[in-house]
């Protein structure tokens, strides 16, 4: 039979608190891509597709944004989501970059 002492209980409670505190950090959303980031600049990323310079990026057409790009993995209705072009970061659902490819 296992003896449950006050010391055992306190150690278990401390472990549970530590696990819950670290779980909150583990599920935190990745940071948003900064438009001035080197990769973002290289790919012409804009957090708002409506601010894309169409003269500089003739591939851009109104209505294109990260939310309807095949690479965007955010859920419908999310304001941001993951994109393999920017590992460890989130892109704005309203964003755009020159790697844009429409969903099939």
Automatic annotation (TrEMBL):
Tell me which UniProt keywords the record has, alphabetically. Answer: 4Fe-4S, Electron transport, Iron, Iron-sulfur, Metal-binding, Signal, Transport
Q: Which domain of life is it from?
A: Bacteria
Which residues belong to the signal peptide in this entry? 1-28
User: Among its keywords, does the record have Transferase?
Assistant: no
Protein's UniProt keywords contain Lipoprotein: no
Stored SUPFAM superfamilies: HIPIP (high potential iron protein)
One Pfam family named in its UniProt record: HIPIP
Family annotation (PROSITE patterns): HIPIP (PS51373), TAT (PS51318)
Q: Which residues form the High potential iron-sulfur proteins family profile domain?
A: 27-104
* The protein's role, per its UniProt record: Specific class of high-redox-potential 4Fe-4S ferredoxins. Functions in anaerobic electron transport in most purple and in some other photosynthetic bacteria and in at least one genus (Paracoccus) of halophilic, denitrifying bacteria.
Subunit structure of this chain's protein: Homodimer.
Please give the family membership noted in the entry: Belongs to the high-potential iron-sulfur protein (HiPIP) family.
What protein name applies here?
Answer: High-potential iron-sulfur protein
Q: Which organism is it from?
A: Paraburkholderia translucens
